[in-house]
Amino acid sequence: MSGDLLQELFAGRHLVPSGIDGLYGRGPLFEAVVTRLEAMIDRMVSADGAEVMRFPPGMPRRVLERSGYLKSFPDLAGAIHCFCGDERAHARLLATLEAGGDWTAATTGADIVLTPAACYPVYPAVAAAGPLPPEGRLIDVASWCFRHEPSRDPARLQMFRMREHVRIGTPEQVRHFRDAWMERASGFAAALALPARLDLANDPFFGRGGKLMADSQRDRQLKFELLIPVGSAERPTACMSFNYHQDHFGQAWDIRAAGPGGAGAVAHTACVGFGMERLTLAILRHHGLRPEAWPAPLRTALDWPAA
Questions:
Q1: Percent above pLDDT 90 for the chain
Q2: Where in the numbering of this chain does the Aminoacyl-transfer RNA synthetases class-II family profile domain appear (predicted)?
């Protein structure tokens, strides 16, 4: 079914193939839905008082290393390489290219990597600002992200947009934030007239130790997802995630809490993430490719213009 959906999106130029699975252009209807979803989220969070941060799709390599991403997800990471040679090295590169060889061997790893999740640049930025205020901090962040997992599933893209709200503070402040968003999510899905359910989840940790880490994450109920059928009903897609990191990022970046009962303690963090492409695909999958035929509640939620 995901193959049929992907071909239908290609045929209508809603997604534009590039020759690489999971790397597609976006057509006008697709982008219009993303834009209106962003505006809907803006309206929903307008009273939250979050600080807005927007980052490019690249971040310092040291941030990825210090955050521990390579320990858990080395298979998903994307590094940027650049040519730094002289004219002779350039001639060798061109000769390799002409012969059909691997010209990338002539490049060197840059100090920038592709951003794997929108929240990762937030933590060093917050740490650099000094101690947290007593109420902690709430950040509204968005970025293009990259994860190396090529697939024909249209909901599993290699480059995609992620919108997040990140809460940093005491354990009580952070857990309250995460729990409140889990309740909020059902109303968000209902406004889009999408069939959704909340379920316990785990991240795809790498290697033999990955199963132990995933089991521990589930046992401690650190990750939940809002699941909506996109590619198939049997394997619904995580379109929102609700993650409690405990003190992982607080330890990595020495972020200190200042709230009641937590002054000076390592801060805890949590984030709620919106997969913008996945939510868009869910709308197109369940309501079709003709906005004039969409149900009135959905058109109202997206503030879609009248036909």
A1: 93
A2: 145-291
Supply the angle between the helices 28-45 and 276-287 in degrees, to the nearest 10: 110
Per-residue pLDDT tens digits for 163-207: 999 999 999 999 999 999 999 999 999 999 999 999 999 999 999
DSSP state of 307: -
Q: What torsion do the CA atoms of 153, 154, 155, 161 make, to the nearest 10 degrees? A: 140
Judged by DSSP in three states, 167 sits in: strand
Nearest 5°: phi and psi at 67?
A: -75, -10
Three-state secondary-structure class, residue 268: strand
What's the DSSP call for residue 306? P
Q: Distance between terminal CA atoms of the chain? A: 30
Tokens of 70: 């390579």
Q: Mind listing the domains of the chain with CATH numbers?
A: 2-78+116-301 (3.30.930.10), 83-111 (no CATH)
Alpha helices in 12-51 (DSSP H): 28-45
Q: Is 90 exceeded by the pLDDT of residue 1?
A: no
Q: Are 69 and 42 in contact (CB under 8 A)?
A: no
293 close to 304: Cβ distance less than 8 angstroms: no
Contact 158, 22 (CB under 8 A): yes
Amino acid at 126: V
DSSP string, 7-35: HHHHHTTSEEE-SSTT-EEE-HHHHHHHH
> 14 near 284, Cβ under 8 Å?
yes
